[in-house]
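Posting this for the archive.
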Amino acid sequence: ILYLSGGPGGSGIDDFQADPEGWDLPYLTNRDLVLLDQRGTGYSQPTLNCPELESDALPAEAERSCFERLTANGIDTGAYNTTESAADVEALRVALGVPEWDLLGISYGTRLALEVMRSHPEGVHSAVLDSVFPPNVDLAVAETFAFVEAFNQMLADCDAEEYCTENYPDLTGTLLTTVADLNADPGEISGDDLVLGINNAFNDGSTIGIIPWAIYEVAAGNLRAFDEMAGYEGERSFQASGDVSDSEGMYLSVMCHDEYALGDYERAETAAVGTLPPELESALLQATFETTTTCGYWGPQAAVDNSPVISAIPTLILAGTYDTATPPSWAALAAETLQNSFVFAFPGLGHNVLSDPCAIEITAEFLADPSGTPDGT
């Protein structure tokens, strides 16, 4: 089984080294686990890691410095993209003499797995896609609305629970009023900080349950509740010096090549204005604005196949109902053209569900017999 890490920019080898005991999983029993550092990531050479982002420079300035250093060293950042990485996966399979293998992708690793299934299907026995990122998602627009999808799920779950409805009767109104007040007079945090902190908390199963409480506490002036909920460090967080777990340059190369074209921010803004509550607009458009701006010099979207992946390869798709990085609607979208796919959405979970015992059990059953429907009861 080949593990494809997320990001883009994550290191498969580092993911294992960080917690070897966590890989003692039933679906890996009697299977070889192949760990790949995708081009530009981890221990691969050259690496597109950006140590500039470990400095005190502003992120935008540090990203440009990294790009200038990489290009001065002769690195073509346009060669670091999903299509090329999929070709690397196939080259690795041939080099290892593996007739077929199972793919295990998490987050961006699912996007890479889907491209392997499209371009090199002959080597794929089955695929497990945890928190799927299909190529036919219009990312610049869709990521702006992912928060709303998760928040609406929380509202529905709160309405179904007496304790929640009694203690937090107006989550939407309380959030929007608090965001507006904090943005008008920011102190330790702004309203945008609160929105992005909640967004982060949605992706962590240990913090999802306290989001309603944190919204009401922050509204009452208790900012310690914000820290407890989110541990907020900004929209992007960067690793310490010497850490190879995340290659920021690979992230930007893939996103700029595969996803973001010039003008995408304006298109996302047009879609958001009048649809999103105005109090949320600036926070939820922030990531699209930042990435589109960087891609203006890093190299905006090239001619890339962002059509749906059509495949009969048995595929297990796992989603968390609160995932704001790869929302459950993306799982449904991917499954539309994967004729032998099985989709499981896990209530109460965020991004990356394969730490959940139920998800692990379903995955083990699927890999044992990819042609059968796993028991999701």
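The chain has 15 helices and six strands. The radius of gyration is 21 Å.
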